[in-house]
Design goal:
Distance between the termini of chain A: 21 Å
Number of strands of chain B: 19
Number of helices of chain B: 29
Structural class of chain A: alpha+beta
Helix content of chain B: 40-55%
Radius of gyration of chain B: 29 Å
Strand content of chain A: 15-25%
Shape of chain A: globular
Number of strands of chain A: 12
Radius of gyration of chain A: 20 Å
Number of helices of chain A: 14
Oligomer: heterodimer
Largest sheet of chain A: 10 strands, mixed
Largest sheet of chain B: 8 strands, mixed
Helix content of chain A: 25-40%
Largest interface: A-B, 22 and 30 residues
């Protein structure tokens, strides 16, 4: 008989600029995640031996993030030897995939209690530093129609006739909502990052730019014009020939921020609530992933959402809050057009444009973010979805308990 | 006994291997394989018996080694021989692997051009010395034939030079000699003369006993790392896109080279060799290499060798040419003649016009000097050959007169009649017309056997093609001398017979006409233009019409209608939609690019976009598949070409193919209008054309006797 997958907790580190001058650059990735596992142990008085597995998403699993980092983190957090760990890579969807896999293990009875989330220190292991055949093997790149993600984002904007002003306005809203949420203390999932002596290194997200204005956004240079001109615009238009050009509207200001961060979600069956005196906060209702056309790449959220809702037996109207990862402004604007979900239900406390997108960790962060706000508002259903490299989408529906 | 590879061992134990295959060149074919095998056996024995201490490889021919045997390669394209291709490449490779690990140092004494297979043999040597002379060129031209170096050239280049240096050489087919070849790392040393060459090569082998090829040594690392090394990952992430910008994905050879180079850097040496062979086989299996070899190599060579020139007529050289009309075409023709050392009398109605024509030629010459392609002395000499004039008398001693005035029948005939009495009896009279029948123009000439069409393309300084049009009465001698003249000014001649629109205007016009039809059917003009370019046309039909100028097209339309009435013909129907719309656009003031508006609106900053009125007028939501749009644009041109063949205007595939590619940029990867049919497969082509005819109209109908037609033009 299928078990329920209950979310007992969802915590995350604050996010900071993913460069050498970022606040978390001095914290190695295993430590970012280990800190969260230690916190779960402390605040829930958790016997770590009861945790069956630690599943961590990580999109650049090499060097400091290499190896089955879930196991390394479990060891560093002082968890019992009996705890196993692994790493999962579904690009930007890795963190949510980790949550979904944990839920599946619990629902089918393979595990009773699992920690799932992700870690990405983009300042110490730069984006795409692992390399891949998709990007760097000429035959593969040409056959699969590889273009850089930013070109896909600009293509979505071009096909949807989104102007620079449209995408900048969306970005401004993200900044304003995030700044307001931070100021109001809505981010309950935040756990400060401390050093070995307990001193706080970073307590709050410091990537948000509350001083953002439309003028400042307008002054930023398009990030993908150059690479587009080198040849990727031509490749995109060869599959989408209805445009004679691709206006490059995405900049550093309306694309997700490159940051460091980690997330951890404690998921178990109902028996664990009693056994370990854990208070259920939500249950995972349904999960889904899809593939989509790889060149336009970032259109996965809408089909993933429709698929997960079908699995959940729910409609769009049933969902109180959506977290649609702000990889690029056009991604969310396109999602809104395809689903007609209103703006005031989406990323109500800001998104990755303002807060940053630590690739492998973000999925777990979104679970915590939507749950915090469902609890604050008394909402019932939340849906988290992300677009994913090479053309995929992932979605999870949770129900606040 | 002479083996074709002479081996002479000197007192110091240096074996001089001189390649002297039967024929004019050393070539990588079955005979070579046999000779190489014997040589390897003999050298191996000599080394084992301690008689041979080192090896110098050189050539007895004018070139070091001419590369692969094209005909042998073409044999592989038949499906029956695909596996043979992989096997035989393996044999060639294994021989060179044995060569480079004989156990004695080897040096190539490169005393002539080493291209393709020739360079591959040099890279299998341990050391390369080349004669420092312009004719001693090294490079990999395989890419231009739709192939790649299949005897280890990709693998060894990468292991010698690293990916960053090797990839451009392989993908672009760059030819280098002397210091540049040394700088690029293809040769280790240069020599001043034959003796110096032998001495350096011999000296090196004697001083390097025990030498092992770098990539056969333990711990060898490719210079700069493999494809995933940080230094290379960035380059390889964009290289395919940069390539596609040039080729639009239509040329598989450079893509295969890039892939073979990158993938071979990730594996062991012999695995890399097999990867290279498989990419070579992939190219052989596709139609592009046959198309490029067939048209751009063989047929271009046939034209250079004068296959379409009447035989038995002594070669002529023009000493003086008269050009009537110093407009855009006339001035370009004058420039071409002057550059070839031919004196030109450039005549126009006013001296100002004639001088302006010479000034234009001067500007072109200046630009060439700036770019280092011409020295000041040659520039001055060329310019001095152009004589602007208003006097017919100045053309009296011309060998050829080329009339390049407005497309006006009476004007042209009048000028011809006026000039005729002053010309020498053997002077050839040519018209640059693109529209007026040569036989009709020839009527104004007392001796139509001296009359011929010489249709140049704009801009003359950049377009290599000249369409020679044989009038009904043009003599063999006139045709032959016209052919010689075109070659003298270093352009490429094709020969067609007189017929409305000749070949190039008729078929290029069909491309434009089809574009107009698609527009009028309500297909999004942006889509039409994009699909045309993706199909390989240099410019979309709407943009190209603007560039040719709508006003000019409207004039040509009126002229053709007049001629139709005069001659009782219906040629105008071939380009009916293009003609009608062009005349309508002129009435609306949309005369083309020069006026800033045609199909496009042109902005002061040089950018352009499709004028909104077209979507308003014709709609833009008609759904025709991209495949249908592409095939309509290409097949229309091919079917029109078949009509030209059927009517005897075009008599050989080579003239059709080369004319289409050089004349208006018909997609090179197809090999030209006639070759496209062979690459498609004749039955498949006919079936697809039938489908298009059923859906879109009879103009796509292919003549039943397709095979017979193609045989007649073979």
């Amino acid at each position: 008989m299928q078990q329920q997958a209950i979310i007992f907790d969802a915590i995350r580190t604050p996010r900071s600029r993913g460069k050498a001058d970022g606040s978390l650059n001095e914290v190695k990735p295993v430590e970012l995640a280990a800190g969260l596992l230690r916190e779960l142990k402390v605040r829930h008085d958790l016997d770590s031996a009861r945790v069956g597995d630690v599943i961590l998403g990580c999109a650049d699993p090499l060097s400091e993030q290499g190896g089955a980092i879930g196991k390394t983190v479990a060891m560093m957090a002082g968890y019992a030897d009996s705890v196993s760990g692994m790493q999962v890579d579904r690009y930007c969807g890795s963190g949510l995939e980790a949550v979904n896999l944990a839920a599946m293990k619990v629902m089918c009875g393979v595990e009773d209690l699992v920690i799932a989330g992700g870690v990405e220190s983009m300042s110490r292991v730069p984006i795409a530093s692992g390399g891949s055949a998709w990007i760097s093997d000429p035959e593969v790149a040409l056959r699969t129609g590889y273009v850089p993600q930013g070109i896909s984002a600009d293509l979505i904007a071009a096909l949807g006739c989104m102007t620079r002003e449209d995408v900048d306005r969306f970005a401004l809203e993200s900044q304003q909502r995030a700044a307001s949420a931070r100021a109001n203390g809505y981010f309950k999932s935040l756990v400060p990052v401390r050093d070995a002596f307990g001193r706080t290194i970073l307590a709050e997200d410091d990537f948000i730019k509350p001083e953002t204005t439309m003028e400042r956004l307008a002054a930023l240079k398009p990030s993908f014009a150059e690479v587009g001109a080198m040849g990727f615009d031509g490749i995109a238009m060869s599959r989408y020939p209805s445009r004679d050009s691709i206006p490059h509207v995405h900049t550093a200001g309306n694309s997700s921020g490159i940051v460091d961060g980690a997330s951890a979600v404690l998921i178990g069956n109902e028996a664990m609530a009693k056994d370990l005196s854990l208070k259920p906060r939500a249950r995972i209702v349904a999960m889904a992933n899809v593939g989509c056309e790889p060149m336009i790449m970032l259109t996965g959220p809408a089909p993933a959402t429709l698929k997960v809702l079908k699995k959940a037996g729910l409609t769009l109207a049933d969902i109180d809050l959506f977290e649609v990862n702000e990889a690029f402004a056009s991604v969310v604007l396109n999602f809104m057009r395809e689903t007609n979900v209103p703006r005031d239900k989406i990323n109500v406390n800001g998104g990755a444009i303002a807060l940053g997108h630590p690739l492998g960790a973000t999925g777990g962060i979104l679970i915590g973010t939507v749950l915090d706000e469902l609890e604050r508002r008394g909402g019932r259903y939340g849906l988290c979805t992300l677009c994913i490299g090479a053309g995929m989408g992932i979605a999870t529906v949770i129900e606040r308990l | 006994m002479s083996t074709g590879f002479e081996i002479a061992v000197d007192s110091a134990g240096v074996a001089l291997v001189t390649m002297d295959m039967p024929g004019a060149v050393n070539l990588m074919n079955e005979i070579y394989a046999g000779l190489m095998e014997q040589t390897l056996v003999e050298l191996t024995r000599g080394i084992a018996e301690d008689r041979i201490k080192g090896i110098v490889l050189t050539s007895a021919k004018k070139t070091f080694f001419a590369g692969g045997d094209i005909d042998a390669i073409l044999r592989y394209q038949s499906q029956a021989n695909w596996d043979e291709c992989f096997t035989e490449l393996g044999l060639m490779k294994r021989q060179l692997l044995r060569w480079e690990s004989l156990g004695a140092p080897t040096a190539a004494a490169i005393n002539g051009a080493a291209l393709g297979g020739g360079l591959e043999i040099c890279l299998a040597c341990h050391h390369r010395v080349a004669l420092d002379a312009p004719h001693v060129q090294l490079g990999f031209p395989e890419v231009s034939l739709g192939l790649l170096p299949g005897a280890g050239g990709v693998v060894r280049s990468v292991r010698l030079l690293g990916l960053k240096q090797a990839i451009p050489l392989l993908m672009e087919g760059t030819r280098l000699h002397g210091a540049k070849a040394k700088e690029a790392g293809l040769v280790d040393d240069l020599a001043t003369d034959a003796a110096d060459l032998q001495q350096k090569a011999r000296g090196w082998v004697l001083a390097n006993a025990g030498y092992v090829q770098p990539w056969l040594r333990k711990g060898f690392r490719i210079p700069g790392g493999n494809a995933f090394a940080a230094a290379n990952a960035g380059l390889l992430a964009v290289a395919p896109a940069v390539l596609r910008k040039k080729t639009r994905g239509l040329l598989p050879a450079p893509e295969a080279i890039l892939a073979a180079a990158a993938e071979g850097s990730m594996t062991g040496y012999e695995a890399a060799m097999r990867i290279e062979s498989r990419y070579f086989e992939k190219l052989i299996r596709g139609p592009e290499s046959a198309a490029l070899i067939g048209t751009l190599y063989k047929q271009v060579n046939e034209i250079a060798a004068r296959a379409s020139r009447p035989a038995g007529i002594a070669e002529s050289k023009a000493a003086k040419v008269g050009v009537l009309g110093a407009g855009m075409m006339g001035r370009g023709i004058a420039h071409a003649c002057a550059l070839a050392g031919i004196a030109v009398a450039l005549k126009d109605m006013t001296l100002a016009n004639a001088t302006a024509g010479k000034d234009h030629a001067a500007a072109l010459l200046d630009r060439a000097v700036e770019r280092g392609r011409l020295d000041a002395a040659r520039r001055a000499a060329a310019l001095a050959l152009i004589h602007p004039t208003t006097e017919n008398a100045d053309l009296a001693d011309c060998d050829i007169v080329i009339e390049a005035v407005f497309e006006d029948l009476e004007l042209k005939q009048g000028l011809t009649r006026d000039l005729l009495p002053l010309l020498r009896a053997d002077c050839i009279f040519a018209s640059n017309t693109s529209t007026l029948p040569i036989s009709l123009l020839a009527q104004a000439h007392g001796h139509p056997e001296q009359f011929v069409g010489l249709h140049f393309f704009s801009p003359v300084d950049r377009m290599n093609l000249v369409e020679i049009i044989r009038g009904r009465r043009t003599s063999d001698a006139t045709l032959a001398h016209a052919y010689d003249f075109v070659q003298q000014i270093r352009k490429t001649p094709i020969v067609v017979s007189d017929g409305r629109g000749f070949y190039t205007s008729r078929v290029f016009g069909a491309f434009c006409d089809e574009g107009v039809r698609l527009l009028e059917e309500g297909v999004d003009p942006v889509l039409i233009e994009n699909i045309a370019r993706q199909a390989g046309m240099p410019v979309g039909p709407l943009a190209v019409m603007d560039e040719v100028e709508i006003s000019l097209m409207a004039k040509v339309s009126k002229t053709n209608k007049r001629l139709d009435a005069m001659l009782g013909e219906n040629f105008s129907s071939v380009h009916e939609h293009m003609n009608t719309l062009a005349e309508a656009m002129v009435a609306e003031g949309r005369t083309g690019r020069a006026a800033g508006k045609g199909f496009y609106d042109y902005r002061p900053d040089g950018s352009k976009s499709i004028a909104p009125l077209w979507k308003e007028r014709f709609g833009s939501t008609t759904q025709i598949s991209s495949d249908d749009i592409r095939d309509r644009l290409l097949f229309r041109q091919v079917v029109e070409t078949l009509h030209c063949v059927r009517r005897g205007v075009v008599q050989s595939a080579r003239d059709a193919n080369v004319g289409s590619i050089y004349g208006w940029g018909f997609p090179m990867h197809t090999g030209g209008t006639v070759q496209l049919i062979e690459g498609y497969g004749r039955r498949a082509f006919a079936a697809r054309a039938c489908q298009l005819a059923a859906r879109y109209g009879e103009r796509f109908g292919v003549p039943d006797e397709l095979d017979a037609l193609l045989e007649s033009a073979a």
